[in-house]
Structure prediction request, 126 residues.
Amino acid sequence: MRRALVVIIVIVIAGLMLLGRIYYALDPASSAAFPRCAFLTLTGYKCPGCGSQRAIHALLNGDVAAAFGYNAMLFISVPWVALCLFAETQRVRNPRLYARLHPSILIWLFLALILAWWLLRNIFNW
Ligand SMILES: [Zn+2]
Prediction:
């Protein structure tokens, strides 16, 4: 069981490293290798994740300002997701810490933030 978990973790890390290398080397704005946003294509409106691929490319190449311009919500999401993943690792071992790091009010607040971001970026063309 433990060996299977280690294999899964190694595969996930290797996959993330490969993705990081691809996003570092290829610019999603000019490469046809990356998928276009289906929501934007179908509706003409940006989804909350629009610009994330370009933002990741900019971040990996050290251009923080451009990354923020492509998708500011990504900057809020990454620390939040990292905190949630850390909380998940502590769920069984330390349930009190999990409860402190993972209160339901923060989940609802984050969902409201995403919805507000989605609405505002289409109103103000962010
Ligand atoms: Zn999109």
